[in-house]
Amino acid sequence: MDNVTLLKTFELCVNNLLAHNFPLPVEDIKPQLHLTHKSSYYGICQHRLENGRLIHIIGINTNFVAKGTDKAITNTLYHELLHTLPGCQNHKNRWKMYAAKVHELFGYDVRRVGGDKTKADYESIC
After folding, report:
1. Are strands 53-61 and 43-50 parallel, antiparallel or unpaired?
2. The domain that contains 59 carries what CATH number?
3. pLDDT digits (tens, 9 = 90+) for 22-31
């Protein structure tokens, strides 16, 4: 996936969540994706305080963007965006509830981990 498509996909995920009333704190999400070469994850949501506000920065692995399927990348973007929701900085019940809702609404199987690296969507990516 090229960077332009990646950003459009990110915006589409944000807009889909907003259209279905997910409490996405849009004003507290950095508008750009952070690209990283770290191979220990496909995506990450980092949280930090800026001027008394909790800011969320979504990061995604560059190797994953280059080699992952569009479906796997979109799934990962939804996964990380769910971490910006109130009470969802971990993978506990609230996060799982929203992940199930994403699956119901959009067909993406958002899980605690991106997937078994033997599956075709994630195979030999990082």
Report:
1. antiparallel
2. 3.30.2010.10
3. 999 999 998 7
